[in-house]
């Protein structure tokens, strides 16, 4: 809680995104420039978001940051990159001669307070929504407008895609200074309203290798990564964009699963190998393939990032049955009512023939809970802005 006698306080929130064509590997670690383009779906903020409050005041002695209630080191280089870039853009704007663009708080220090509405322990990536929110809130504080994905990218690569809603691509770019390595909306969130998302939070999270160091080792040692970046991704991107533009779920789902598998194959090709998938992750993969095979149609697709949790894409009409299937094969031990969080899902029976077709032994407590959500409906939410005269 900030109690300000004079100063400015702004609170904004930003969404999480999940890549369907993965970013894995940098060609420039400092500027965070990728070895391949990527494409993601921005998720709804009601279920997954970061909320950031930034205050600035002449009374503050230094910049400080608290993440989920704990003070963190403001001198981390990525935080410093974002702060430096945003202050530079604000100064540029205030120096353009227009008195309306004078930024009162620019010489003041900031206090930043950032929280996620999802448990960090769940192992869901928070750097994308975190850095997107930091950059956006700073932009409101300093009155900076325009393309900001290049700044968010310097916080965390995947953060640049959280600057837009709907379906978003991060273009690899060609320039050494990274000015053309930007995020761009492919389709707005309204384009495919039937698309639904389930996050299956897998139990027994172990500490794993973070994406930053993981991809560094992959770039150094994996020839599959090189082949993927040079020969495969651009074709996969084209097909994925076509699938999204035409709302072809079957193509979208297949490409999503194949790209996730290719990314995890790259992790296995890394030396020493990196394992993000757990036994439960592999059981989920198997369940999805058996489910689709039973219907002779791709109704459901999975994707996994740098951890064992699954993100499932499906269409509204298939959602109730698939949720029941997950409940049946991964029965929760105690938290029956708490098992499904987020958007409600109708309860439907699962046929014996479907259970038999999946043919898996139920795995008690394999999944802690499910978050039911959808594609995001708006980009950023400004919660409140309070300004006193700083002069
Ligand atoms: C597997 O964006 O977390 O989620 O740029 O080093 O901060 P840094 O990495 P980060 O990597 C995300 C990797 C991924 C795939 C993706 O989101 O595209």
Automatic annotation (TrEMBL):
Swiss-Prot/TrEMBL keywords: ATP-binding, Cholesterol biosynthesis, Cholesterol metabolism, Lipid biosynthesis, Lipid metabolism, Lyase, Nucleotide-binding, Steroid biosynthesis, Steroid metabolism, Sterol biosynthesis, Sterol metabolism
Record carries keyword Phosphoprotein: no
Entry keyword ATP-binding: yes
InterPro entries: GHMP_kinase_C_sf, Mev_decarb, Mev_diP_decarb, MVD-like_N, Mvd1_C, Ribosomal_Su5_D2-typ_SF, Ribsml_uS5_D2-typ_fold_subgr
Molecular function (Gene Ontology), one example: diphosphomevalonate decarboxylase activity
Pfam families listed in its UniProt record: MDD_C, MVD-like_N
Pathway participation: Steroid biosynthesis; cholesterol biosynthesis
Enzyme class, UniProt record, top EC level: lyase
Record field: catalytic activity: (R)-5-diphosphomevalonate + ATP = isopentenyl diphosphate + ADP + phosphate + CO2
EC numbers on record: 4.1.1.33
GO cellular component: cytosol
Source species, domain of life: Eukaryota
Domain Mvd1 C-terminal positions: 197-376
Occurrences of domain Diphosphomevalonate decarboxylase-like N-terminal (ranges): 14-183
GO biological process: cholesterol biosynthetic process; isopentenyl diphosphate biosynthetic process, mevalonate pathway
Function statement: Catalyzes the ATP dependent decarboxylation of (R)-5-diphosphomevalonate to form isopentenyl diphosphate (IPP). Functions in the mevalonate (MVA) pathway leading to isopentenyl diphosphate (IPP), a key precursor for the biosynthesis of isoprenoids and sterol synthesis.
Family from the record: Belongs to the diphosphomevalonate decarboxylase family.
Full protein name: Diphosphomevalonate decarboxylase
């Amino acid at each position: 809680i900030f109690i300000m006698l004079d100063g400015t306080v702004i609170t904004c929130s930003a969404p999480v995104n999940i890549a369907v064509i993965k970013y894995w590997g940098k060609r420039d670690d400092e500027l965070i420039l990728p070895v391949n383009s990527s494409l993601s779906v921005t998720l709804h903020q009601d279920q997954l978001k970061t909320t950031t409050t930034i205050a600035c005041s002449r009374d503050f002695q230094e910049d400080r940051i608290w993440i989920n209630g704990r003070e963190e080191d403001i001198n981390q280089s990525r935080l410093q990159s974002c702060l430096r870039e945003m202050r530079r853009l604000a100064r540029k704007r205030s120096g353009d001669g227009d008195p309306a663009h004078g930024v009162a708080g620019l010489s003041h220090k900031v206090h930043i307070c950032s929280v996620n509405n999802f448990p960090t322990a769940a192992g869901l990536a928070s750097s994308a929504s975190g850095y997107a929110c930091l950059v956006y809130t700073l932009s409101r504080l300093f009155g900076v407008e325009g393309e900001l994905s290049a700044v968010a990218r310097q916080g965390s690569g995947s953060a640049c895609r959280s600057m837009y809603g709907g379906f978003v691509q991060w273009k690899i770019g060609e320039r050494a200074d990274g000015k053309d390595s930007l995020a761009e909306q492919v389709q707005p969130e309204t384009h495919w309203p039937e698309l639904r998302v389930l996050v299956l939070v897998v139990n027994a999270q172990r500490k794993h290798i973070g994406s930053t160091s993981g991809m560094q080792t992959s770039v150094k040692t994996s020839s599959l990564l090189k082949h993927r970046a040079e020969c495969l991704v651009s074709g996969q991107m084209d097909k994925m964009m076509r699938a999204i533009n035409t709302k072809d779920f079957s193509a979208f789902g297949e490409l999503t699963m194949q790209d996730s598998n290719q990314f995890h194959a790259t992790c296995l090709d890394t030396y020493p190998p990196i394992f993000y998938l757990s036994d439960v992750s592999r059981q989920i993969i198997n369940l999805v393939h058996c489910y689709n095979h039973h219907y002779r149609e791709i109704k459901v697709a999975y994707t996994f990032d740098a951890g064992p949790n699954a993100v499932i894409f499906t269409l509204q009409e298939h959602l109730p049955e698939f949720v029941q299937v997950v409940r049946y094969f991964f029965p929760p031990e105690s938290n029956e009512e708490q098992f499904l969080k987020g958007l409600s899902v109708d309860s439907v029976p699962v046929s014996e023939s479907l259970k038999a077709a999946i043919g898996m032994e139920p795995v008690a407590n394999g999944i802690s809970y499910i978050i039911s959500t959808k594609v995001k409906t708006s980009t950023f939410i400004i919660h409140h802005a309070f300004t006193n005269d700083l002069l």
